[in-house]
Amino acid sequence: MSRNGFLPLGDRMSGGNPPGVPAFLSTAAAAVVALLRRVGLWGRGLVIAAPYLWLFLFFLVPFLIVFRISFSDAVIAQPPYSDIVQLLEDTDLEQWKLQITLNLSTYLRLLTDDLYIYAYLSSLKMAAVSTLLCLLLGYPMAYAIARAKPSMRGPLMMLIILPFWTSFLIRVYAWIGILKANGVLANMLGAVGLVDSNWELLYSDVAVYIGITYSYLPFMILPLYATLEKLDPVLLEAAADLGCKPWEAFLKVTLPLSLPGIVAGSLLVFIPAVGEFVIPELLGGPDTLMIGRVLWNEFFSNRDWPVASAVAIALLLFLVVPIMVFQYVQARQQDGEERR
Amino acid sequence: MATAQVIRNPARLEPWQDPKAVPYVRIEKVTKRFGDFVAVDDVSLSIYRNEFFALLGGSGSGKTTLLRMLAGFERPSEGRIFIDGVDMTEVPPYERPVNMMFQSYALFPHMSVEQNVAFGLKQDRMPAAQIRDRVAEMLALVQLDRFAKRRPHQLSGGQRQRVALARALVKRPKLLLLDEPLGALDKRLREKTQFELVNLQEKLGITFIVVTHDQEEAMTMSSRIAVMNQGYIVQTGTPTEVYEYPGSRFVAEFIGDVNMFEGRVVEDEPDHVLIRSDEAGCDLYINHGVPMPIGTQVSVAVRPEKVLLSKDPPPDGGGRNATRGIVREIAYLGDASIYIIQLHTGKTVRVTAPNVTRRVDMPLTWDDEVHLSWRPFAGVVLAQ
Amino acid sequence: MKRFGGPLGWALWFGYAFLYVPIFLLMLYSFNENRLVTVWSGFSTKWYGELLENTQLLDAAYLSLKVAAISASFAVVLGTLAGLALARFGRFRGRMLFGGMITAPLVMPEVITGLSLLLLFVALEGLVGWPDGRGVTTITIAHTTFAMAYVAVIVQSRLSSMDDSLEEAAMDLGARPAKVFFVITLPIISPAIVSGWLLAFTLSLDDLVIASFVSGPGSTTLPMVIFSSVRLGVSPQINALATVIVLLVATGIFVATLVLARQERQRKRDEQMALQGG
Fold first, then answer.
1. Which among B102, B163, B167 is the top mutation candidate for probing chain A, defined by the most A β-carbons within 10 Å of its own β-carbon?
2. pLDDT value for A137
3. N or C: which terminal CB in chain A sees fewer CB atoms within 10 Å?
4. pLDDT at residue number B362
C-alpha cells in the first residue's frame, strides 16, 4: 500500500468543481479532507483508527475502570461501589478540591484470606494439569494427522475442529450424563463389577480435568498441527542418515522444531483455563475452587464489585507473563510467515 | 554443447576395465514398486572404490529411488544391495556407513552451521574435543569457518550447499550419495562448484554417487554415467563413451544435441558400412562395420559440432557424408554459433561451429546456400 | 505414516473417540422416553415436542441468533480493517499496543472480559447516559469486541500468505488503493472473511459468561437459559436441543465442505484442460 492511502481522492476533490455542486460545498469538503489528512486520519489512517478506537474503548479502557473500582468501597447503592475520585467543596476556603481515596483493604483481604490464595493456586494447578493432558493427548494426534496422506489431512483436521462449532456449554453438559451417579460410565464399570452404580466422578477435580481437556483440545491441536505439518520430512531422513534412530530423530529434530506450536497451544489452553468458570461450576464439586468461580460469586451472589474487580486484577497479574509470551510467539509466527 | 569434462588424474585406473577388481557397491537385480508403479526395474550395477558415479535421467526415471535405496530410505521390493561386501538391503539408514547430501540440503533450521555439521558425530558419541576439531577442519575445507555460528537461513544458497556437503562428509562415510547437489544453484556458481566437488572427492578418496538430470553436470564431474529411463539403466559408460558412442536413440538424444538421419544399410563390410538416406540427401559412410544385414532400417546420429559448413563443396568425399542446404537460423553464442540448416530434402539439421573469426566477418548469413559434410567417424549407427 | 496402525494410529482413534462419543451419547439419550436421561426405557421423540412448546427457550434462541448475526457482521468489518492494518501497513505508531489488543482477547479469561465490559457500561451510563440500561446493545458490543480479534487474526494470516505483488500489479495497472482493496484484495481474502464471520457468529452464539455479565433483564440469551437448566442436572429437553444444534451445525459444515470440494474439483478440471489445451 502506498503511504498516502486514499490521497488521490482528496486531490481530485480539491482540483476542480464537479458539475452542479456549489463551490463552497466542495471547498468545505476539501478542507475537511485536508484536515483529516493533516491529523493522519485519512485512508490508511482511517483503516487503523476504526478498529483501534473500538478496541481502545471496549477493551483497554474497561481494564482501567476495573483497576479503579478495585480500590473502591463496597456500598449499598446503584452502582454498588464508592467513587474514589470526588470533587469536594471546601466551604471554609471557598475552594474546590479533588479527593482521591484509595482503599487498599480489598487487596489486603485477597492476601490474608486463605480462600483467595487457595483459589488462585488451585486454578493454576487445575489449568496446568489440564494443559499437560491436552498436550499428551493432542501431540500424537497432531503428529499423526500431519503425517497422514495430504488428501486425508483436511478431513482429519475438520473432525478436530467440528466439535468446536457445536455449543461449548452443551459439550460440557454431555459429560454430566457420563460422569454422574447411575451415568454412562458408572453403569459400564458397574456392569463389569468394578464399582457400584452410585459411584460417581461428577463434582470432582477429575471431572474438571476431563472437562477442560475435552473443551480445549482443539486449541492445542491446531497450532501443533500447523508447526508439525510445516516440518519437512526430509529433515527426519537427514537425521536418520546421520545416525539417529527414529526416537532420537524425534527428540532432536521434531520436538525442538515443534516447540513454537507446543508453546502456543499450551498457552491457548492454559490462559483461559485459569479463569474458567463454566466447567468447574458444572462438573466440579463444591470444594473445587477456581478463581473464575470466585469472581463470579463475588459479583453475582455477594454483589461485591470492588472485590470482584480486585480478584480480576490479581488474576490478570498472574496471566500477564503468559499472555505476553503468547503474543511474542504469535508475532514471531506471523513474521516467519511473512518472511517465507 | 560445452563438454567441459574435468581432466582426471591420468594415473587413476579404470577399475571397471579390470576383470579382477571387486566392486565397492553392488546393486543386484533391484526392483522397487510403489503399488502398481515400477520405479526401478531390475537394475544391476557395480560401482568401484573412488569412483564419481552419476545416475543421469529425466524425472520419473527412477534415479532418485535408486539413490534412496542405497541410503536406506526405501527398501527394494526385490534384489539386494551390497556395500563393501556387506549386504545392506535390510539395514536401516542410521546404521549404514553411507551419508547423503539432500537436494533441498535438509539443514536443521534450529541449529547453527556448526551444530548441523557436528550432528552426525554427536550421534556417534564422539568425544567433544574431537568433534570440535573435526567440525573445524571440515568447515575450513568448505571455506565456511567464518559462518560457524550462523543459522541456515542466514546463509546464501551456495553456502547452504557447502554446509550440507560438510555435514555429510564429516562422518567420513565410505560412500557419499548426492541428490541433485547443484540443482538449486545458479549457473555460474554451479560451474565453479562442479570443479570443487571433483577436487574434494579426489582429495578425500570417498566414493561419490550423484543423481542428476543435468547431462552437462554428469559429463563434467563423473568417472562413469549410468543413463536411466523409466526405471531401467539404458547405458553405462564414461562420459566420452556415452557421448560419442550412444547405444540407443534415447541416449543419443538425451545427452547433447544430435541430428538423426533415417536410412537403410546398403553395404556392410568389416571396415565400413554404407547407409542410403533419402532424408540426408546422400549416402552415409561410417568407418566401422555393424552386425546388421543389408536392407535393415537404421538411424544415423551425427553430433552438431561434427558437421562442417562451407560455401564451397568439400574437396574429398565423392558425395558421401556431404549434402547441401540453406541457412535458416543463426544463434550467436559468443564462442560458437548454432546454425539451423534446411536441407534440400526438407530435413532440418543443427550445426555448431566455433566462431574463429569475428562476428562481422562471418562468412555465412541467413538464406546462404551451404555445403555440409562430416568425417567417416562422425556418424553412429543406431538400430530402430 | 501412511496407514493408521501402530501407537500413533491408536492415539488418533482414541482422541477422536474422546471427542465424539460424549456427543453421540447425548444425541442417543435425547430419544429416551425416561426423564432420568441415562436410564433407557424406550424410544420417544416427545422431548422434541416439548422443546417446540418451550417459548422461553425459543425466545432466547431468537435473541441469540439476532445478536450473533449483528455482532458477527460488525466484527467482520472491524476485524478485516485490523487484519489489513497488521498485515499490510508495516510499522506504524502504536502497532505494539494494537497487536496486543488484537491477540489478548483470544486468550483473556471470559470472566475478566465480562466484568470489565460491564463496569465500562455502568460507568458510561453514569457519565453520558448511554447505554441506557443493559440488553441487546451491550451484548452485541461485547461480542463484537472479542470476535473481531478472531476475525483480525484469520484475515491477517490470509493476507500474509497472499502475494503482495498482486496488489502491486493492480496499482501498476492504474488502480487507486481503495479500488485495489475492493477489486483485488477483498475477493482473494473473501474465504477468510466468510470463515471469520462464521466463527464470530458461533462464538457469539456460544458465549455464556460475557453475556451473563453485560445482559439485563429481558435479554436472556440461549446459553443463559441452557446454563440455568443444566445447573440443576441433566434434562432430556436439553439433550433434544443439543441434538438439534449438532445436526444443524453438522449439516451446515457438510454442505460447506461439499461446495468447497466441488469448487476445488472444478478448478482442478479447468487447470487440467488448460494444460491439455496449451
1. B102
2. 95
3. C
4. 63
Interface mutation target, options C25, C73, C111, chain A, most CBs of A under 10 Å: C111
Residue among B323, B332, B328, B352 at smallest CA distance from B340: B328
CA-nearest residue to A253 within chain B is B108
Asked whether the beta carbons of A290 and A126 are under 8 A apart, the reply is yes
Report the number of distinct structural domains present in chain C.
1
- Domain of C80? 62-222
pLDDT by residue (tens digit) across B157-168? 999 999 999 999
**Do B100 and A243 make contact, defined as CB atoms within 8 angstroms?**
no
CB atoms within 10 A of CB B149: 10
Q: Which domain holds residue A320?
A: 106-339
Residue C159 lies in a domain: yes
Residue with cell 497479574: A317
Q: What is the CATH number of the domain that holds C186?
A: 1.10.3720.10
Contact assessment for residue A195 and residue A181, using Cβ atoms and an 8 Å cutoff: no
Task: Report strand pairing: B224-229 vs B207-212.
Answer: unpaired
Closest residue in B to A244 (Cα) is: B94
For β-strands B207-212 and B175-179, DSSP reports them as: parallel
Strands B175-179 and B282-286: unpaired
pLDDT at A26 over 90: no
One domain, residues A201 and A328: yes
Higher pLDDT, C113 or C217: C113
Residue A330 lies in a domain: yes
Q: Tell me, yes or no, whether A139 and A280 share the same domain.
A: yes
- Above 70 in pLDDT, residue A18? no
**Does C199 reside within a domain?**
yes
Q: How far apart are CA A247 and CA A257, in angstroms?
A: 15
- C-alpha cell belonging to residue C129: 447516559
Q: How many angstroms separate the CA of residue B71 from the nearest CA in chain A? A: 7
pLDDT digit string, tens, across residues A171-228? 999 999 888 887 888 888 888 878 876 788 889 999 999 999 999 999 999 999 999 9
Query: Closest residue of B to A242, CA-based?
Result: B120
Structurally, chain A folds into a number of domains equal to 3
Its pTM stands at: 0.82
CATH architecture of B257-383: Beta Barrel (2.40)
Nearest residue in chain A measured CA to CA from C199: A165
CATH node for B15-97+173-252: 3.40.50.300
- Residue of chain B with shortest Cα separation from A255: B110
A·C CB contacts under 8 A = 263
Please choose, from the candidates B166, B74, A300, the residue with its C-alpha nearest in 3D space to the C-alpha of residue C214. A300
**Could you tell me if residue A48 is inside a domain?**
no
Q: Residue C16: list chain A partners with CB under 8 A.
A: 159
Give a yes or no: residue C18 inside a domain: no
**Residue C27 in domain:** no
- Put simply, the answer to whether C117 touches A58 (Cβ < 8 Å) is yes
Mean pLDDT to the nearest integer, B121-135? 93
Largest CA distance in chain C: 72
CB B16: neighbour CB atoms within 10 A?
18
- C91 Cα to chain A: minimum distance (Å): 11
How many angstroms separate the CA of residue A12 from the nearest CA in chain C?
12
CATH number for A286? 1.10.3720.10
CB contact under 8 A, A51 and C176: no
Q: Report the 3 state secondary structure along A186-225.
A: HHHHHHCCCCCCCCCCCCCHHHHHHHHHHHHHHHHHHHHH
Radius of gyration of chain C (CA): 23
Amino acid, single-letter form, for residue C153: V
Confidence of residue C265 (pLDDT cuts 50, 70, 90): confident
Question: In chain A, what residues touch B98 (CB-CB under 8 Å)?
Answer: 241
Shortest alpha-carbon distance between residue C124 and chain A (Å): 10
Q: Is residue A287 part of a domain?
A: yes
> Which strand ranges, in their side-by-side order, compose the sheet holding B52-57?
B98-101, B175-179, B207-212, B52-57, B224-229, B232-237
CB within 8 Å: A170 and C106? no
